[in-house]
Design a protein that fits this description.
The structure holds two protein chains of two kinds.
Chain A lengths: L1 H32 L6 H19 L2 H22 L9 H23 L15 E4 L2 E4 H23 L1 H11 L1 H6 L4 H27 L6 H15 L4 H14 L5 H12 L9
Antiparallel strand pairs in A: 1-2
Helix pairs in contact in A: 1-5, 1-6, 1-8, 1-9, 1-10, 2-3, 2-4, 2-8, 2-9, 3-8, 5-6, 9-10, 9-11
Chain B lengths: L13 H18 L3 H21 L9 H19 L3 H23 L4 H21 L1 H4 L13 E3 L2 E4 L4 H24 L1 H11 L1 H7 L3 H27 L9 H14 L4 H21 L4 H14 L3 H27 L1
Antiparallel strand pairs in B: 1-2
Helix pairs in contact in B: 1-2, 1-7, 2-7, 2-10, 2-11, 2-12, 3-4, 3-10, 3-11, 4-5, 4-10, 7-8, 8-9, 8-10, 11-12, 12-14
Classes of the chains: A mainly alpha, B mainly alpha.
Pfam family, one (chain B): BPD_transp_2
InterPro entries (chain B): ABC_transp_permease, LivM-like
Keywords (chain B): Cell membrane, Membrane, Transmembrane, Transmembrane helix
Chain lengths: 277, 336
């Protein structure tokens, strides 16, 4: 019985780390660019589909894990330059609406390219099978999810806290104008941050593909979950995204419960567990 | 919306506007190939109008309109199927269901402003979808709720009008739309409406003057939810069926896109927006199943090039024509 709970929790942790990657990307973009990327779920979807194509072409999951986020990030970079940069001067509502439009286009384009039926991606050979400790069984792939996402999270943390780029992103989140006046090309910083945040969604999409496959209409669901994570954890907070993601991942087994958890957090701590007013 | 109302003649032509609406209501079934399509336009125009009360007049971007639409549809359908409720009571039930859910969602989501509010409405929308999906004994789940009746218009035991005919049903929907349109205009013209617009322009200032902005926002949310619920119920009667898609996020997005494409500054814009999107969908969905992609493109184009929507575009066009006419008159006077 205890094992069952432990298994549930560990299972949830794997999924939760994926949610963390999605939410932290959303949070970084929001922190600097000050708008919520409604196309985040669509970029996640694209990551999963590109993973499928890369795996079916090369048979190599690891290559897909490298390529898919890069492709997604490149696309995000282009979209930011061509489209989103034109509307930074408008109220946030319009930025949300443009990203909603982008989400619709990506989703429908994915259906056109990959068809309306989901595609499945096999777990890479290296990670098939299960870990057995006593009477406790755990799939290697879930273990890999936790470790790999943890490493990505660590790398991201180092990038934000220890590099010049990270310092600029953090400073820009506090005051975009000051950073711009100090001589940084703020528009380039915006593009890079948007691409980085979206790349994280792409990584999450790739990692998700062997679990559930690439489903054409999963975008809104993922977006909704990411919002729940961010509302629980607090927007603009790295640790909030981590704790919120894990919490939602663990509770997810009863899928309606995450919304209940969200409602409780709004009532008790309206700015999220780690959020600032 | 924090941008200024882009419309040059909001008040001056209020009577003329009503005539325009009447003209559209009468013209629609004559121009369109089927009365069913015309009814669909009006039903979505109702939902867009309710969305416009939030977005255009209070500045609240809600991704939760599908919740109220779906709730109204399910509620009315269940009341008619299981309890044999009549037309008006079922519609009233749908309005209450939509309004009540809007109260719940609103009360929670309005605790946060700006971007969080938007995200919360979307999260609740997802939640409503899962609830409807889970309660498949009641909602039919993926298969939808089948054999929804379309009751007669009756008072006591006297049947006044059977709605089985598509044109009769259109007439009923049109009358209801007109009433809701007039009611919404009354609301906007009232002190309550002015307060909503004050909240849209500057919420901090509105609350500094002494208005409890949260109460106002929740109230307009309930109003919007109730109207959207009625629209949902009518849609269920139109189709004789409540598909699960009535309550999913795409429905919220559609209603929102209709509102924005039509123009957020005017209630008539919602009619324009719903009309053009429903017609576009009807025309394209057979030819090109992925036409939603075009909807995304249109949304982006409207945001970048035509933020006033169709109505704003028309209004500024009229304005230009009028000004150039005036200018030419002035010039002639100079010459003479």
């Amino acid at each position: 019985m205890l094992n069952l709970y432990l298994f549930q929790i560990l299972n949830g942790l794997g999924l939760g780390m994926i949610y963390f990657l999605i939410a932290v990307g959303l949070t970084i973009i929001f922190g600097l660019l000050n708008f919520v990327n409604f196309a985040h779920g669509a970029f996640f979807l694209l990551g999963a589909y590109i993973c499928y194509t890369a795996v079916s072409l090369t048979g190599n999951f690891w290559l897909a894990l490298l390529i898919a986020p890069l492709v997604v990030a490149a696309l995000a970079w282009v979209i930011e330059r061509l489209l989103i940069q034109r509307i930074y001067h408008l109220p946030h509502m319009f930025q949300i609406l443009v990203t909603l439009g982008i989400a619709l286009i990506i989703q429908e384009a994915s259906v056109m390219i990959w068809g309306p039926v989901g595609k499945s991606v096999a777990v890479p050979e290296l990670l098939r099978g299960v870990l057995v400790v006593g009477d406790f069984v755990y799939p290697y792939y879930r273990l890999f999810l936790i470790v790999f996402s943890g490493l990505v999270g660590l790398g991201l943390w180092l990038l934000l806290e220890r590099t010049r780029f990270g310092a600029l992103v953090r400073a820009g989140s506090e005051s975009t104008e000051t950073v711009s006046l100090l001589g940084t090309n703020i528009l380039r910083l915006f593009s890079m941050t948007f691409a980085l945040g979206v790349a994280l969604a792409g990584v999450a999409g790739v990692l998700f593909a062997p679990l559930r496959g690439a489903q054409p209409f999963v975008g809104p669901e993922i977006l909704g979950i990411a919002f729940v994570v961010v509302v629980i954890g607090g927007m603009g907070s790295f640790s909030g995204a981590l704790v919120g993601g894990l919490l939602v991942g663990v509770v997810q087994s009863a899928s309606l419960m995450i919304y209940g958890a969200m409602a409780v957090v709004i009532l008790v701590r309206p700015y999220g567990l780690f959020g600032r007013a | 919306m924090s941008e200024k109302n882009p419309l040059p003649f909001a008040k001056t032509q209020s009577k003329a506007m009503l005539l325009w609406v009447l003209a559209v209501l009468i013209g629609l079934p004559l121009i369109l190939p089927s009365a069913t399509l015309a009814s669909e336009i009006l039903i979505f125009a109702m939902a867009a109008l309710a969305c416009n009360l939030l977005l255009g007049y209070t500045g609240l971007l809600s991704f939760g309109q599908g919740i109220f639409f779906g709730a109204g549809a399910y509620c009315a359908a269940l009341l008619m199927i299981h309890l044999q409720w009549g037309l008006f009571t079922a519609l009233l039930g749908a309005a209450v269901a939509g309004g009540f859910l809007a109260l719940l969602v609103g009360a929670l989501a309005i605790r946060r402003t700006g971007i969080y509010f938007v995200m919360l409405t979307l999260a609740f929308s997802q939640m409503a979808y899962f609830v409807a999906y889970t309660l498949s004994d009641w909602t039919g789940g993926d298969n939808g709720l089948l054999s929804v009746p379309r009751p007669q218009v009756r008072i006591g035991d006297t049947v006044l009008l059977s709605l089985a005919d598509a044109r009769a049903f259109y007439g009923f929907v049109a009358v209801l739309f007109l009433l809701i349109f007039i009611g919404a205009r009354r609301v906007i013209a009232s002190p309550f409406g002015s307060t909503l617009m004050a909240i849209r322009e500057n919420e901090t200032r509105a609350s500094a003057i002494g208005y409890d902005t949260r109460h106002f926002k929740i109230l307009v949310f309930v109003l919007s939810g109730a109207v959207t619920g009625i629209a949902g119920a009518l849609y269920a009667m139109l189709l004789h069926f409540v598909p699960l898609s009535n309550i999913d996020l795409a429905m919220s997005e559609n209603i929102l896109i209709m509102t924005i494409v039509g123009g957020t500054g005017s209630l008539f814009g919602s009619l324009l927006g719903a009309g053009s999107i429903v017609l576009l969908g009807d025309f394209l969905s057979d030819l090109w199943p992925r036409w939603l992609m075009l909807l995304g493109v249109i949304l982006i184009l409207v945001v970048i090039f035509m933020r006033g929507g169709l109505w704003g575009g028309l209004a500024s066009l009229f304005d230009k024509v009028r000004r150039s006419r005036k200018a030419s008159v002035v010039n002639k006077e100079h010459v003479l």
